[in-house]
Design a protein that fits this description.
54% helix; 8-stranded mixed beta barrel; 31 helices; 5-stranded mixed sheet
């Protein structure tokens, strides 16, 4: 039989002080579960011990009721009952807390229980002994002897408490007998007490030995299970074993094959040398091998330790586990463990981790990795009192390219953008893609604000240069929002939000710029959020109304129609400017239902006017990109009964920026219904003559900014108005001058050739009732000028 097998059946040595709970040994034995087993065994007979104490006290009270004052008996019996109950229930209540492990303090506390019980029972010989004669004396000593024996049995698992109880009670009995009868019976009582103490100690020690053996057996079973992994379905596992000097012994053939050596050569070699391979001579060891050396030196068990291993000319990844081995004397004799080749699994894990943290299209870090980098930068900035920064980048005009030339080309353009951004980074920055056409930069050290601004401007200028993609020359731009932490946000989430608000300001300003976060941006964002919530309820709460501004003939001043203008009056916030809520409605995708409401109500009101008065309704680009909008127009005309020729839809040049989305086809269908089209704000946006030739507009509206500038004598504005009028006349279109407020402005635009005029000079936007009166009661061809 081997030494390992012999040690398996050897009885474990028990520290007496640890058994009593007065010492916590620092050996290899885990005493926590053993102490828990002691307490659990003591609690199992807690009710038996309680019953024995109560029954013994009752017997003595009945036996001495005629010779001892009743009050004394009642007091003593009550004290015994209370102490016994307290001890019993305390034992029961500790079961959950000490079910798996316990401390020396838990064992030591049981001494107070034994002492309390010993004191209340030690009083019995003092109180009852002097009056005990014959039968009563026999009952007293017999009851106490049985109780001591029962306690030795019930509390044997807790030797400290039992020994204290037996010592106190036994001493009291012996002293009482010595005084009453002499030394013989006193000596016999003392001997009996000593026998009980010895028996209790031996039984308690046996219980601890059994529990210690169970724990050791469980640990051996765990080790055996570890070693038997070689025979599981995974054929990449092998066994390994070392001696106390960390040399390989009894190497399994599979282990030898895995390191490229034969089983004979590998025996006796240093385990670390085998794993280090060519690195053994250079001394350049990977971190995993250093960690393994530390575990082997400390003689600690370890599981699933990952380390790179060079097998031949190939580097592999191994995962090894092992337990230390000891002989029957407790001396360390080496390690035994298993190993697995996890190279393929690690490669798959690395690939999954990369996919989770890198954008598949551009190869840049994705949102997850950027958030992790920002969180680390925030932590470093807070730790060292520094600063970090977060930039959000949004591509200008990318959507137009993507919609007009297709998503494949858009993806290739994003790859070119990523390449340019990647060349801008240093070790201080992390550039990644958030998604869509949004990118971001994490700046680890942002104490140099000038450098931050230069980086932002460099990003904008770099991304704004032309791109050659699939024989297309493309021009886009970039807008940047910058936030500095922890000034603009104490957490990564707050900093991202602040940068997003700064980016929104850059986009709102027309793009191609960068803005730094300012606190008032949060105020504006909150106001915008409140407005959006209120706007979503504005329709059903009947808060929206239409005003109608007259449009007149430039020469005669006669009324030709009205433009329907949307107004919103909130119950608590009051009137809200269209400049605020119209862009908000477009961003929040509320413009479609609101626009439909405007169209239906405007047509309903126009049906009440004279047949020669037209109604003009503004239409957003989002409405025209929806093919179903044509059905909405047709339904409005049909339900209200107005002539299609009386309905004029005003569109802006932004409609034509998103080619390929069907907006031009929708305009053609609108014309087929018989409606008119007017081009609003001509010259203020992305003017192009191409769409004027493709779409049949009935009129062009000249923005009020040109009218006001021309009235002040600005030659450029006068030239633009003349050019627009000449262009419209050549294409058979009318021209409407907006924002005419004085007689002088009226005469000027009339002289410049404008066909129609609109502005405060001829009337402010009117409520529906006043507009109706003007449209039905004026004389045909009569001027309505103020």
């Amino acid at each position: 039989m081997t030494s390992d097998t012999t040690s398996q059946f050897a009885k474990p040595r028990i520290d007496t002080r640890a058994l009593l709970g007065i010492h916590d040994p620092r050996d290899l034995t885990d005493w926590g579960p053993i102490r828990a087993a002691q307490l659990n065994a003591g609690s199992q007979l807690a009710l038996f011990l309680l019953a024995a104490n109560v029954l013994g006290a009752a017997l003595l009270v009945l036996q001495f009721r005629d010779i001892t004052p009743l009050s004394l008996l009642v007091v003593w019996g009550s004290v015994v009952g209370l102490v016994s109950a307290a001890v019993g229930f305390r034992r029961l209540s500790s079961r959950g807390r000490t079910r798996l492990t316990a401390t020396t303090g838990d064992i030591r506390d049981t001494a107070y229980e034994g002492l309390a019980l010993g004191v209340v029972w030690a009083v019995a010989p003092v109180i009852f002994g002097p009056d005990a004669q014959g039968e009563t004396a026999l009952a007293l000593w017999l009851t106490l002897s049985i109780l001591m024996t029962a306690s030795a049995v019930a509390l044997a698992a807790l030797p400290l408490a039992t020994i204290i109880f037996l010592t106190v009670v036994g001493t009291s009995i012996s002293v009482s007998l010595l005084i009453a009868t002499g030394p013989v019976l006193a000596a016999a009582s003392g001997f009996f007490t000593i026998l009980l103490i010895v028996a209790c100690f031996v039984r308690g020690k046996a219980l601890v030995q059994i529990r210690t053996s169970e724990i050791a057996l469980a640990e051996r079973d765990e080790t055996v299970s570890l070693l038997l992994r070689e025979f599981e379905d995974n054929g990449a596992d092998w066994l390994w074993e070392t001696d106390a000097q960390r040399r390989v012994i009894r190497a399994s053939p599979r282990f030898a094959y895995s390191v490229g050596l034969d089983a004979v050569t590998i025996d006796g070699m240093s385990f670390l040398q085998v794993l280090a391979g060519p690195h053994w001579e250079t001394g350049s060891f990977p971190a995993g091998l250093h960690k393994l050396a530390e575990r082997l030196k400390a003689r600690d068990a370890f599981r699933d330790l990952l380390l790179p291993v060079t097998a031949g000319s190939e580097e592999r990844w191994w995962e090894i586990s092992a337990n230390p081995r000891f002989d029957e004397r407790g001396d360390f004799v080496g390690f035994r463990g298993v190993g697995s080749d996890v190279t393929e699994a690690r490669a798959s894990t690395d690939k999954i981790n990369r996919m989770a943290r890198y954008d598949m299209l551009t190869g840049l870090p994705n949102r997850l990795l950027l958030n992790e980098a920002l969180a680390r930068a925030m932590a470093e900035a807070e730790k060292w009192g520094g600063r970090c920064a977060f930039m959000m980048i949004d591509l200008d005009r990318f959507k137009a390219v993507n919609d007009s030339l297709g998503h494949p080309l858009g993806d290739r353009l994003l790859q070119r953008v990523a390449e340019r951004l990647a060349h801008l980074v240093t070790d201080n920055e992390v550039i990644g893609r958030l998604g869509g056409d949004e990118f971001a930069v994490v700046v680890r050290d942002a104490r140099d604000t000038d450098r931050l601004e230069r980086l932002a401007r460099t990003i904008i200028s770099t991304l704004s240069r032309s791109y050659e993609v699939d024989q297309h020359t493309l021009y886009i731009g970039a807008s940047v929002g910058l936030a500095v932490g922890p000034r603009d946000g104490r957490s990564a989430e707050m900093l991202v939000r602040s940068a997003d608000l700064a980016l929104y300001r850059s986009k709102d300003a027309g793009g191609g710029a960068f803005n730094v976060y300012e606190p008032q941006l949060h105020v504006a964002a909150e106001e915008r959020r409140v407005l959006e919530i209120a706007l979503r309820n504005a329709l059903q709460n009947d808060e929206l109304t239409l005003k109608y501004q007259p449009v007149v003939h430039a020469g005669t001043g006669a009324l030709t129609g009205f433009e329907a203008l949307l107004r919103w009056t909130h119950p608590t916030m009051g009137p809200i400017s269209p400049d605020k809520f119209i862009p908000l409605a477009e961003d929040a995708r509320l413009i479609a239902p609101i626009g439909e409401w405007v169209l239906r109500n405007a047509c309903t009101e126009a049906a009440k006017w004279d047949d020669d008065i037209r109604i003009a309704v503004n239409v957003s680009a989002e409405q025209l990109h929806n093919p179903a909008f044509v059905a909405v127009i047709a339904q409005s005309i049909s339900q209200t009964g107005i002539s299609p020729d009386r309905l004029e839809l005003e569109v802006t040049e932004s409609v034509f920026l998103r080619e390929g989305t069907g907006a031009v086809k929708v305009l053609d269908h609108i014309l087929q219904l018989g409606c008119r089209l007017s081009l609003d704000d001509f010259g203020t946006g992305y003017s192009s003559l191409g769409y004027l030739s493709r779409t049949k507009f009935s009129s062009i509206k000249i923005d009020r900014s040109f009218v006001q500038s021309a009235s002040k004598g600005v030659r450029e504005a006068i030239a633009i108005i003349r050019a627009v009028v000449a262009l419209a006349q050549s294409l058979g279109m009318a021209t409407t001058a907006e924002g005419v407020e004085t007689e002088e402005e009226h005469r000027m635009v009339q002289e410049l050739g404008c066909s129609k005029v609109q502005g405060y000079y001829f009337g402010r936007p009117l409520p529906a009732e006043e507009a109706r009166q003007l449209a039905t009661r004026r004389k045909r061809g009569e001027s309505i000028a103020a």
